[in-house]
């Protein structure tokens, strides 16, 4: 029994020396417990819904802005709220750009025109009596 114990200790010492002499030591990965962050499902769905609204040509800009927002000191639990706020901001900016483009092309003004005629007086019966409009 003592010989087996001695062999076991010798093997452990040999194994420890080999580990120290090897190029990569992964034992620190084993010793640290892995704590995974779980995002609430509702928050995840909100972010996914907003992300689906981002157009493919704007995804790169979204990722770049997100990377600049996140620092090494950012808490993991704050990241979803940062992403949500960024997506809301980008979607608002795109909507403003869309309306500016529509206005510059004159499409909004065409849509705003009414199908009905507008008369200066509020009483349509007075205008009919005066002959301004016909039946």
Portion of residues within helices: 55-70%
**Helix/strand/pairing category:** mainly alpha
Roughly what fraction of the amino acids lie in strands? Answer: under 5%
Strand element count: 0
Helix and strand topology:
Blueprint: H1 2-21, H2 27-31, H3 41-53, H4 59-69, H5 79-105, H6 107-112, H7 124-130
Helix pairs in contact: 3-5, 4-5
Description:
By secondary structure, this protein is mainly alpha-helical. The chain contains seven helices and no strands. It has helices spanning 2-21, 27-31, 41-53, 59-69, 79-105, 107-112, 124-130. Helix 3 (41-53) runs parallel beside helix 5 (79-105).
Descriptive key words:
single chain, 135 residues
Can you give me a brief rundown of this structure?
The chain has 135 residues and is an all-alpha fold.
């Amino acid at each position: 029994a003592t010989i087996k114990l001695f062999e076991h200790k010798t093997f452990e010492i040999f194994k420890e020396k080999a580990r120290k002499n090897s190029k990569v030591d992964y034992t620190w990965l084993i010793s640290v417990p892995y704590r995974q962050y779980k995002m609430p499902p509702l928050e995840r769905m909100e972010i996914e819904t907003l992300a689906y609204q981002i157009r493919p040509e704007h995804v790169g800009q979204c990722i770049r802005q997100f990377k600049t927002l996140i620092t090494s000191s950012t808490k993991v639990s704050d990241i979803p709220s940062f992403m949500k706020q960024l997506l809301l901001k980008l979607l608002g900016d795109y909507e403003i750009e869309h309306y500016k483009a529509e206005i510059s092309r004159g499409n909004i003004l065409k849509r705003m025109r009414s199908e009905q005629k507008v008369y200066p007086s509020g009483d349509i019966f007075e205008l009919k009596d005066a002959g301004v409009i016909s039946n």
